[in-house]
Amino acid sequence: MAKKVKVKGKFRQLLHLLLMFGALLGILDAWIYFYDYRAGIIISVFLLIYFVGIILLWIYSKQYLVEELVSFATEYGQVQSRLLRDLELPHALLDQNGRVIWFNSEFERLLQDKNPKHKVIGNIFKELTQDKYPREEQENQVDIVYGECEFKAKMKRINLSGMLQNSDLVNVEAEQNCLIGLYLFDETALKIALRENDDQSLAVGLIYLDNYEEALEAVEDVRRSLLLALIDRKINKYIASVDGIVRKLEKDKYMVILRKKAVTQLRENKFEILEDVKTVNIGNEIAVTLSIGIGLGGLTYSQNSEFARASLDLALGRGGDQAVVKMPGSIQYYGGKSQQLEKSTRVKARVKAQALQEILSTKDQVFVMGHRISDVDSFGAAVGIGVIAKSMQRKAHIVMDTVTSSLKPIVDLYKKSQDFEEDSIVSSTRALEIVGNNAVLVVVDINRPSITECPDLLKCCKAIVVLDHHRQGSEAIENATLSYVEPYASSACEMVAEILQYVDTGAKLRGVEADCMYSGIVVDTNNFMTKTGVRTFEAAAYLRRSGADVTRVRKLFREDASEYMAKAKTIRDSMIYRNDYAISICDATDCQSPTIVAAQAANELLNIKGVKASFVFTEYQNKVHLSARSIDELNVQVVAEKLGGGGHMNVAGAQFENITVEAAVKLLQDAIDEMIENGDI
Questions:
Q1: 118 pLDDT tier (thresholds 50, 70, 90)
Q2: CA-to-CA distance for 396 and 410, rounded, in angstroms?
Q3: SS3 138
Q4: What are the pLDDT digits (tens) for 528-569?
Q5: Ramachandran class of 319: left when φ > 0, alpha when ψ lies in -120 to 50, beta otherwise
Q6: What is the DSSP letter of 416?
Q7: What does DSSP say about strands 651-657 and 623-630: parallel, antiparallel, or unpaired?
Q8: Most CB atoms closer than 10 Å: which of 83, 305, 319, 353?
Q9: How far apart are CA 92 and CA 472, in angstroms?
Q10: Mind listing the pLDDT tens digit for each residue in 192-241?
């Protein structure tokens, strides 16, 4: 073996250097011969001994030298292997398919009795799926949890092409010439410290009494202070139980400072103060309800304060009696089970009317837009805004693309009026063409930009006014110049009718216009049976005085035989789910407005004894539409929001894409089951 071994590198250079010194000494010896042959002979003898010694040393020690080198390399490799195996960092080698082919002692200790040899790493750590494997020369990092420990797993691709290209034993494809190095860094202590620090971060909350004035009116004067004291005590005790601070800002407003960990506790018990405060009763006929807004997760305390204020506005806009928690990128709702109380005062309506008048007076163009697939309430409210604009010498353009069969009689009646102009109703495309630089857009009967008739029009108008009676959701029209959202109102037509009475521009309704607005109230209240308050009847009385014809309106809403039969079949085929919820599928393919038929069928199902809520599905325009209705025992808006929809407490809906009706029904049933299990309904 020694004869086959060739010396190279530094050792070969050393050998050449010794031979070179011998050659130089030989040249020196030849030169000395010219001066003294006896000295030359002596040096020649020395040279002979020198070269013979080098040759003999190389011949006889070469084998031992090679053996020592091999022994050193072997021991050095063993030391490296031992250090690698005993390293206090769990690591392993995986093949390109994720199977464990080698692991060190710390990795084995981590897995305890589970032998990872030849197992797929994804079966051991569920987070390390195949899509997380590194590609090419990159390093991937994945957070994993194993047992009670948390690790940062680093995976690095190791290319073996250079190692295997000259191999006589194996022939591996180029794309398979790789291993994956897996290293696990224990970050348990770091993550615990970060969570502890995060739990100690401050959150800001605001608590308002929804019906302060109304509750006190029903209590004797001498007992009012006792009612307020009991409410104060409950709020203070509740916040103190989670180590928070509460301070009373005004007679019906509180500010709360909490730790983030405390907010988590409040969310886990679903803000039980919302129900607890309703138990305060010292003779008051109206139970006190709260609205809570909490902001957390902001970069600064001031940002948390803004989150809290936005959350409270959202809670009040959704009807009160609920808590809203706002964080960057998410909003969560709790409560909202009770009916909204109608406000008897019209101060807000008067203020909004004056603000609307000021906005319209400064704009050259007025556009009015409702939601997609406009209904009678949306169209009636738009007509009312058009009357206000006309009284101010402004022309209003109602943006509407589709006229459904249920809406067609009203639209035809409006078009037959003497003062109707062709461009009073325009399509979305036409509206985008004619909109100018000084235009105002009034959005009625909707506050979600994504389902307005023309979302692009929101970007083209300098001023935006929102008039809606639906509860606000997490999606809202931003940067609205004027927002008037009242969930207690029965319809958008009711709100516009009140505004009409407070504008001082001399706006007067004609009979046809009054019919359109009266129709909107009739439809949204289901003939004054749903969400009807004192102000609803006052608005209807105003419209009646303005020339609304009740008989003519009733004739407009008579149904076709096909729609009546479809509705009857929907009711007949309904099922009662969990003894309380009526669910049915409406087959209205022969009807021009399947969604209207489904909504009417949902209203009819509420007449069945024991039914707390009704849900009717129908297919229309390649989508599955859900109409949800209730009387007072269930907040269907909460259920609809679970399915991606929204609406009122008693009237809500949702839309589904790329799904069958049967699958949508299953989603509803799963949502009901989950909410019952969690105590949400």
A1: confident
A2: 18
A3: coil
A4: 877 788 888 988 999 999 888 888 888 887 777 888 888 889
A5: left
A6: T
A7: antiparallel
A8: 319
A9: 53
A10: 777 777 777 889 999 998 888 777 776 777 788 888 888 899 999 999 99
pLDDT exceeds cutoff 90 at 599: no
Reduce the DSSP state of residue 527 to 3 states and report it.
Answer: coil
Region of 321 (left: φ > 0; alpha: ψ -120 to 50; beta: rest) is left
pTM value surpassing 0.70: no
- Strand 290-295 and strand 322-327: the pairing is parallel
8 A C-beta contact, residue 238 and residue 266 = no
The DSSP output letter for 431 is H
- Is-contact 610 575, C-beta < 8 A? no
Q: Is residue 116 within 8 Å of 182, Cβ to Cβ?
A: no
Are 110 and 94 within 8 A, CB to CB?
no
What pLDDT is attached to residue 161? 59
d(CA 372, CA 400): 8
Q: C-alpha dihedral over 68, 72, 78, 79, to 10 degrees?
A: 150
Chain segment 144-170, per-residue pLDDT in tens: 888 778 888 888 887 765 554 554 444
Q: What is the mean pLDDT of residues 670-678?
A: 87
Find out whether 652 and 671 touch, Cβ atoms under 8 Å.
Answer: no
Read off the pLDDT of each residue in 68-97 and give the average, rounded to a whole number: 69
> Is a pLDDT exceeding 70 seen at residue 343?
no
pLDDT of the residue at 1 = 45
Length, in residues, of the chain: 681
Q: Strands, DSSP E only, in 187-329?
A: 202-209, 245-250, 253-259, 290-295, 322-327
Q: Which residues of 39-173 form beta strands (DSSP E)? A: 91-94, 100-103, 139-146, 149-159
DSSP designation for 271: -
pLDDT tens readout for residues 397-450 = 999 888 877 788 888 888 887 677 778 888 888 888 888 888 899 999 888 888
Distance, CA of 103 to CA of 86 (rounded, Å): 11
Distance CA 293, CA 324 (A): 5
| Integer Cα distance of 415 and 344 in angstroms | 36
The Cα 544–Cα 523 span in angstroms is 16
Residue 324 burial (CB count, 10 A): 29
Q: What sign has the CA pseudo-torsion 330, 335, 341, 343?
A: negative
What does residue 322 show for φ and ψ, rounded to 5 degrees? -160, 165
- Token pair 């102009």 is found at 421
Contacts of 428 (CB under 8 A, 6+ apart): 399, 401, 453, 454, 456, 457
The DSSP secondary-structure symbol of 339 reads: P
- In Å, how far from its chain's centre is CA 191? 25
Residue located via tokens 């020592």: 68
User: What is the Cβ-side half-sphere exposure of residue 267, based on CA atoms within 13 angstroms?
Assistant: 17
Q: What are phi and psi of 128, to 5 degrees?
A: -90, 70
Over 70: is that where the pLDDT of 27 sits? yes
* Residue spans of beta strands (DSSP E) within 116-261: 139-146, 149-159, 178-186, 202-209, 245-250, 253-259
User: Which residue has 């707390």 as its token pair?
Assistant: 612
Task: Classify each residue of 21-42 as buried b or exposed e, where b means 16 or more C-beta atoms within 10 Å of its C-beta.
Answer: eeeeeeeebeebeeeeeeebee
Q: Which whole-number Å values give the CA distances from 430 to 421, 435, 662, in the listed order?
A: 15, 9, 39
Sign (positive or negative) of CA dihedral 424, 428, 432, 437: positive
Find out whether 643 and 671 touch, Cβ atoms under 8 Å: yes
Find where tokens 């070269």 sit.
51
**What's the N-to-C CA distance of the chain in angstroms?**
86
The closest of 85, 88, 83 to 104, measured between CA atoms, is 85
